[in-house]
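Sync notes, pocket subgroup
Present: LS, DG
LS reminded everyone that the earlier model was apo-only. Rerun requested with iron/sulfur cluster included. Inputs:
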Amino acid sequence: MVVNGHFMTGHAGIFAGGDCIGGARTMTAATGHGKRAAREIDAYLYGQAWEHPPTPPLVTFDMLHLPDYMDATRTPQPEQPLAARTDFSEVVAGFDAPQARREAARCLSCGNCYECDNCFAACPEQAITRRGPGRGYEVSLDLCSGCAACAEQCPCHAIDMVAEPQNQPAPVGSLGEPLAPARFRVRA
Ligand SMILES: Cc1cc2nc3c(=O)[nH]c(=O)nc-3n(C[C@H](O)[C@H](O)[C@H](O)COP(=O)(O)OP(=O)(O)OC[C@H]3O[C@@H](n4cnc5c(N)ncnc54)[C@H](O)[C@@H]3O)c2cc1C
Ligand code: SF4
Ligand code: SF4
């Protein structure tokens, strides 16, 4: 099946994704297409077109703050013993719902905020406010002094500190002390 850049087929209002549009042909690709198509459909129904936000740079393992993560070993899946593998029945049993949830919770969320509140608790300037569950945080750049405490406390490197533009006045802390020239930027 042929779709355009918004996952819409040649028939206006009919969307498609997954194996039937070719490409990677994996479960993760099909699931991603479903999520993407849902956004496209929602936008379409509002008479708009959804635009994919810019993809942030890759967060690698060495960029994570590992002490913040607990050890969580992989949940073993029951398997058919070798002698029983004589037909086409499934060899690996898979997970039940609680096991699947636990496995999903092992995700390190590389580069993506999962609302752990570490930055909120670490900010000495009260520059960060909660928007509520699932809605992320708001950062007041007027209050932010660029101290980078939030970025250092973020387990998954969801916060980048970027250099202050050259023509800006040097940042100072709440007591007027000079601070490293950095400013806050939350990754998309
Ligand atoms: C043997 C095998 C092993 C695989 N192993 C892996 C793996 O280990 N990891 C991985 O990521 N991916 C794996 N894949 C790929 C993965 O299964 C597919 O990429 C994924 O299932 C695609 O999802 P989908 O929703 O696009 O399509 P499907 O899962 O194929 O779902 C399409 C659904 O539409 C239904 N349908 C079709 N025609 C009609 C119709 N006319 N009317 C109504 N319903 C209809 C079908 O019955 C089916 O339920 C494997 C695939 C195969 C075949
Ligand atoms: S960089 Fe800004 S937002 Fe982050 S902890 Fe420091 S003052 Fe707060
Ligand atoms: S940005 Fe990082 S530290 Fe702040 S809530 Fe999200 S994951 Fe936690």
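DG: The chain has a mean pLDDT of 89.
LS: The beta strands are 128-130, 137-139, 159-163, 182-186.
Action: DG to write up.
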